Amino acid sequence: MSPTDWPPELARAEVSLPQDGGAVWFGQLAALPEPAALPPGPLLLFLHGSSGLNEQTRSYQRWLSGALGLATLAPDSLARAARPRYQSPAPREVYEAVHRLRLDEIRAAVAVLPRLPWVDARRVFLAGSSEGAVAVARWRGAEFLGRLIYSWPCEDNYFVDRADNGFAPDCPILNILSGHDPYFSADSPLNRGLPVLGHSGHALRDATRAKLLILPHAPHTLYNLPAARAHTRSFLRELLRDAAGLKG
Known about the structure:
Elements: H1 8-11, E1 14-18, E2 24-28, E3 41-47, H2 55-68, E4 71-74, H3 92-112, E5 119-129, H4 131-138, E6 147-150, E7 173-178, E8 210-215, H5 226-247
Parallel strand pairs: 3-4, 3-5, 5-6, 6-7, 7-8
Antiparallel strand pairs: 1-2, 1-4
Helix pairs in contact: 3-4
């Protein structure tokens, strides 16, 4: 599959790629120079929230490449011409139509990543925030070393017909939430009348390799906060060390 055959959310995906000397190449996937100079390395696939790719997602990508040496790829979900748009509260069928498209983005990326010479497909992580994190939690494949779920409590609430989590009990998961999330907390007006916990304690109760972190006064978009970055760094480094040990 050549760049001209990629779906638009991949052709316009934003990539950060570590370079020699600590530099980071950043741009759209379709514009990535070929051939990539570096040997295959680990990658994090990131699904943005409903606001799309922005300076927060780019800061996160550049940080991962600069601080941890991970390449990143963030599909541009809003590049789809017929993608549903919404403003909450919206009908659940609208939300679910979007969630299906976000899962399609993971499928498309899984098909493309093994063809990219700078990606070690055995060392790939899946991450997402808010709307994007729903698909991360629902994904049923085993292609990823671990999952990072930001700002999504993995439970039934106004945003889904049902949580429909797809991770296996032994899947490594880092779930970071705000204690007062304006959308998904128990006291959110959007969840009024629903039996909502506002966190993933119940959803992750049987997940033996999951870590739930609640930041009491964090905003909804929280993956660039110092505490979130510190836990993200530790989570990824531990899994990369484990993967290196298995390869050795």
